[in-house]
Amino acid sequence: MKYVWLGMVSLLMSACSSIPKHSPAHLVGQVETGKASYYAMKYQFRTTASGERYSHFDDTAAHKTLPFGTLVRVTNLANGESVVVKINDRGPFIKGRIIDLSRSAFSEIADLDVGIIDVKMQVITD
């Protein structure tokens, strides 16, 4: 009986924590333009809305509506540099911003000192 219970708990936990490995097909190609910012240092290791721990070193991001696990290419409109990030959190919650990037992802396309940049965000496949 003990092993049956443990098996059920394990199955339930794995089902709850799974994040799709591919972007939903109907969203692929969707484009959005607006402002991007990055997470403050105080969020390091906090739990994101998807249940993952936030890390400044992972190429992840927050978006208000895209499903968790969706991959998006974010392009800095000022210099053409781009980065691919995985959506694993909700936000940003500041008017005019469309995406919050991890510090690592932001630093790949802009200087952290800039803080906020104009971007084009496109849903892609991996």
TrEMBL record:
It is an enzyme of class 4 (lyase). CDD domains: DPBB_RlpA-like (cd22268). PROSITE patterns: PROKAR_LIPOPROTEIN. Residues 32-120 form the RlpA-like protein double-psi beta-barrel domain. It comes from the Bacteria. InterPro entries: RlpA, RlpA-like_DPBB, RlpA-like_sf, RplA. It is found in: Cell membrane. The keyword Cell membrane applies. It is a lipid-anchor. Its EC number is 4.2.2.-. It holds the Pfam family DPBB_1. Keywords: Cell membrane, Cell wall biogenesis/degradation, Lipoprotein, Lyase, Membrane, Palmitate. Belongs to the RlpA family. Lytic transglycosylase with a strong preference for naked glycan strands that lack stem peptides. PANTHER family: ENDOLYTIC PEPTIDOGLYCAN TRANSGLYCOSYLASE RLPA, ENDOLYTIC PEPTIDOGLYCAN TRANSGLYCOSYLASE RLPA-RELATED. This is Endolytic peptidoglycan transglycosylase RlpA. It comes from Idiomarina baltica OS145. The lineage of its organism: Bacteria, Pseudomonadati, Pseudomonadota, Gammaproteobacteria, Alteromonadales.
